[in-house]
Design a protein that fits this description.
Structural class of chain A: mainly alpha
Shape of chain A: globular
Largest sheet of chain A: none
Shape of chain B: globular
Helix content of chain A: over 70%
Distance between the termini of chain A: 38 Å
Oligomer: heterodimer
Radius of gyration of chain A: 23 Å
Largest interface: A-B, 52 and 58 residues
Number of helices of chain A: 9
Order of helices and strands of chain A: HHHHHHHHH
Strand content of chain B: under 5%
Largest sheet of chain B: 2 strands, antiparallel
Radius of gyration of chain B: 22 Å
Helix content of chain B: over 70%
Structural class of chain B: mainly alpha
Order of helices and strands of chain B: HHHEEHHHHHHHHHHHHHHHHHHHH
Number of strands of chain B: 2
Strand content of chain A: under 5%
Number of strands of chain A: 0
Number of helices of chain B: 23
């Protein structure tokens, strides 16, 4: 009775909220296009000011780079929190992995996955993609290793300490490039002028590709750490 | 253009990033790094105040920093006016005291603890300093995630449950803020606070109402005002004492700052009065304060009791701010300061007093005061300040709040202030009496007693921990006697709250 009452109340509240949101979104004016405001400015002069062909990357790592620093810090904090709550000092429970065929196939495919992730990270300023996306693909390698070869394999090859070091180095790269901006250009996270080159080449767009690499390392290592702490066998801890 | 206000955010951020690396090299260096970081932060703040002392006196204190060199509508800017300076100062002082307390208190997983702690520090400074809506959202999200992880720090079943509950409530609130930011960008094409506040009145009526109610709902959830208060006592109860001190001492005050910034600077109080929303919020806040005190009366768990009492006090502060008068802000901000130190001091003292007890239950409180008499005296002084005894800071702030309510002829509010004090007498005296009760044990029982009470908190530097408790008490007593010292900063902050045109002019023109 009590539980039913709770459920019914929750459903009623959600329906009322849905109606309220529907009614209010009806009031929004029609989409006016990009002809005004900040987006118009960025479309007009984003390429010439940042040198990045991919305007989304230009916004993410140049105009609003501080937001990206914050966002990647959110991931950093989440990783620390999950490790704090889930980690136990136990050896991981390792399955023996999948069959021989799968192991061989993935042995062949894995280098290509790594190559693809590096491509996505380093070409963030030219094609869709960037540090966050490429980092996720990178983390997938670690997950594939744990599933296909058993988690002890991943543990022995790439220890948690190494992943933590990668994550920290990625975070510090981002911060270091920002501080380099203070000394060389006068502003935190200013695009480094001496790194710019002809637009459209791989090494262009100032510090954007390097920030991408830092974010890629951080996100990749961070997600791998999250996955790794979640598969560990948990024991009841004696206090 | 002042790099120091950026460094206020970057120093804790860099510290949080580098602690895992330091851990890999030598874990003993960590404590040293933590101390250097927090001292550097305090040095920066003192430097900002001393360098700009003349402009502070003249009342035209204003600093800003353009990130990446992009000017306001296109990039992110950090803004520091008198209001943010006041909040940054008290938040930094709180964080400073609590980090030293943590050095003595936290025994396991110190590395991760300090990473999360300094991320909270960076995010709190970021929220206080940013002048950009999306940046505000990013920092709020950072606060939520890191504090949620710290609530689960004890890794017991109730701690995880409280952490998940906290995260669900607060992430929904974060989504509301995100939706509000998106709608603002969709309608106005800008994210800069000054420019939004310039153009907000041009929007249609329904859109204005929708956006402001989204923001207000989100901040009410985060502060734990009436319909959304149920996550708060649980998370205050299960988190370790320094984390609870951060939650009640820093986070709830930061959310109050966000509320002031959003309502007065961005949305504009006129928008709220046009829809009679201000009266609604005032009444909700007063009712929430009433409920908080009533729940505190029936609570048998001392940390949960303090959580409910926090709900009562924050509701009172919110109500007195919503009066939208100078007297109201004076009392409200003074009470923000006094509640910040009283409540954090109480949690800090409890962390020391309850180190050998199995739970935080009323019965376990027996004999606590006899075991550690000095800290218990500090605890009693802090509770007296919560009640509002004359020579202490709690009295001054409650007095100004009462005067503000009477001046605005809001007699229900005045009743709530008195009611809160009277109920506080009942529920604190009960615990003080229990704490002074002698525990009579026979030899056999004594052994049982020792073995049956597990050492939950690992308190291995007792001197540091009790010293921090005394310093909280000292702050309350000194400022209680000399609360006129706070007159100047409070008046400056109030001036900058009401002078929105100056804010807009300085951000967009300077």
């Amino acid at each position: 009775m009590h539980k039913n009452f709770k459920n019914i109340t929750a459903v009623v509240v959600f329906i009322l909220m849905g109606i309220a949101f529907y009614e209010n979104f009806q009031l929004m004016p029609a989409y006016k296009g990009l002809g005004e405001g900040v987006s118009d400015y960025i479309i007009r002069s984003g390429l010439s000011e940042t040198g990045s062909l991919n305007l989304i990357t230009a916004v993410l790592y140049d105009y609003r780079a501080f937001d990206s620093l914050g966002e990647s810090t959110v991931i950093f904090g989440a990783v620390s929190g999950i490790v704090l709550i889930l980690s136990r000092k136990m050896l991981p429970v390792s399955s023996r992995g999948l069959s021989f065929i799968v192991k061989r196939t993935l042995g062949i495919i894995t280098p290509f996955i790594a190559l693809f992730s590096i491509y996505v990270i380093t070409h963030g300023h030219l094609t869709p993609g960037g540090g966050f996306q490429g980092g996720v693909i990178f983390a997938a390698i670690s997950i594939i290793f744990s599933i296909v070869y058993g988690s002890a394999f991943d543990y022995r090859r790439y220890s948690p300490q190494m992943k933590t070091a990668f994550e920290t180095v990625g975070a510090l790269t981002f911060l270091g490039l920002g501080i380099a901006g203070i000394f060389m250009e006068g502003y935190f996270l200013h695009n480094l002028g001496f790194l710019t080159a002809e637009t459209g080449t791989l090494i262009s767009a100032g510090s954007i590709p390097y920030i991408n690499m830092g974010v890629g390392l951080k996100v990749g290592a961070g997600l791998a750490i999250i996955f790794y702490s979640m598969i560990q066998k948990t024991f009841k801890e004696e206090i | 253009m002042d790099i120091k206000i950026l460094l206020l955010i970057l120093v804790p951020l860099a510290l949080a990033f580098s602690i895992p690396l330091v851990d890999l090299i030598n874990a003993k260096l960590r404590r040293f790094f933590v101390l250097v970081g927090i001292l550097l932060e305090s040095y920066l703040l003192i430097k900002i105040i001393t360098e700009n002392y003349t402009s502070l006196i003249d009342g035209d204190f204003f600093l800003q920093y353009h990130l990446g060199g992009w000017h306001p509508p296109y990039g992110i800017n950090l803004v520091m006016d008198s209001l943010s300076l006041l909040f940054v100062s008290i938040v930094t002082l709180s964080l400073f005291l609590i980090v030293i307390y943590s050095i003595g208190y936290v025994g396991h997983h110190e590395g991760k603890y300090y990473v999360l702690y300094f991320l909270i520090a960076a995010a709190a400074q970021g929220v206080l300093l940013t002048g950009d809506m999306f940046n505000l959202y990013v920092f709020i999200e950072m606060l939520t995630i890191t504090s949620g992880a710290l609530i689960g720090f004890k890794r017991s079943h109730p701690a995880s449950e409280a952490a998940i509950k906290y995260l669900i409530y607060n992430i929904i609130a974060g989504l509301f803020i995100f939706m509000g930011v998106l709608l603002i960008y969709f309608n106005l094409g800008t994210l800069n606070m000054a420019e939004i506040s310039n153009n907000f009145s041009l929007l249609e009526d329904g859109v204005k109402l929708f956006i402001s109610s989204l923001f207000i709902t989100a901040v009410l959830i985060k502060m734990g005002i009436f319909p959304f208060l149920f996550w708060l006592p649980k998370s205050y109860d299960t988190a370790p004492s320094p984390v609870t001190a951060v939650l009640s001492g820093v986070l709830s005050k930061v959310y109050l700052y966000i509320f002031i910034r959003l309502v007065w600077t961005v949305i504009g109080i006129d928008t709220l009065t046009a829809y009679k929303l201000d009266i609604l919020i005032l009444d909700i806040a007063l009712f929430s304060s009433f409920l908080g005190h009533v729940f505190a009366l029936q609570s048998n768990n001392v940390k949960r009791l303090l959580g409910y009492s926090s709900i009562g006090h924050i509701g009172m502060i919110l109500a007195v701010i919503m009066l939208n008068t100078e007297a109201g802000f004076y009392g409200g901000i003074l009470h923000i300061i006094s509640h910040m130190f009283m409540k954090a001091g109480l949690f800090v003292a409890l962390g020391y007093l309850l180190q050998y007890t199995a739970t935080h239950h009323y019965d376990d409180f027996q004999g606590v005061g006899i075991r550690d008499t000095k800290v218990f005296v500090a605890f009693i002084i802090l509770t007296l300040s919560m009640i509002g005894m004359p020579p202490l800071l709690g009295f001054a702030s409650k007095w100004y709040i009462l005067m503000a309510f009477l001046e605005a002829r809001s007699y229900f509010g005045a009743f709530i202030v008195i009611f809160g004090s009277l109920t506080a007498v009942i529920y604190y005296l009960r615990y003080i009496a229990k704490g002074l009760e002698e525990v009579k044990l026979y030899k056999g029982e004594l052994r049982m007693e020792i073995f049956s009470r597990p050492l939950i908190s690992v308190l291995y530097r007792e001197k540091i921990v009790s010293f921090i408790t005394y310093s909280y008490t000292a702050i309350i007593i000194v400022f209680g006697i000399a609360f006129r010292l706070l007159d100047m900063p409070l008046n400056m902050a109030i001036k900058s709250i009401f002078d929105i045109e100056k804010y807009i002019h300085l951000v967009l023109g300077g």
